[in-house]
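Consider a concrete sample entry:
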Amino acid sequence: MPRQGLTRERVAAAAAELADTVGLSRLTVAAVARHFGVSDAALYAHVRNREALIEQVAVRAAAVFADKLALAVAGRAGRQALIGFADAWRAFATAHPGQYAATQLQLPPDIGMNSVGHQRLIELSYAMLRGYGLDEPDLTDAIRFVRSTLHGFTSLEANAGFGHPRDIDASWASILDALHATLSNWPTRKETTSEQTP
């Protein structure tokens, strides 16, 4: 019998908070059980194993992450949308390191495809970059470029990877300016092909 007061949502919420505190790699069913003051067995009524727990955190975190990004880009386009999107990305990654790490995991197809948050993250990324007038395949290439840049910066920042005394916020602003300039002058496949043709 499930312990009274414990629900799948409460377990996922507690696991998400613990992931931010102890790190996603150290999140276990036992740690969540201790959080509630119950035995591991009591938690298995709500989550079958650690893998499923991580998946619950990922789905929940993706929904929260998507909400933050949607709010940041609402009513904006072009450079302002990019800045809002990037700043919200960095803020979420900084405030919720464990949950952010969970959103970057490759989930089983049946879970990822049915995760509203993950689908919204994809849709928001495409919508934001359509403001630059990009079409496929350039749109997907640009999304990978932006995602790699934002993920790389926030991951290095989280791990104190920037040792130079240059102000990190100043570098961030310059990087966003560079992203905007690159996206505004994206080399399309047609242009690249024509340059290679005699």
Remarks:
- Confidence is low (pLDDT under 50) at residues 193-198.
- The radius of gyration is 20 Å.
- The first helix runs from residue 8 to 22.
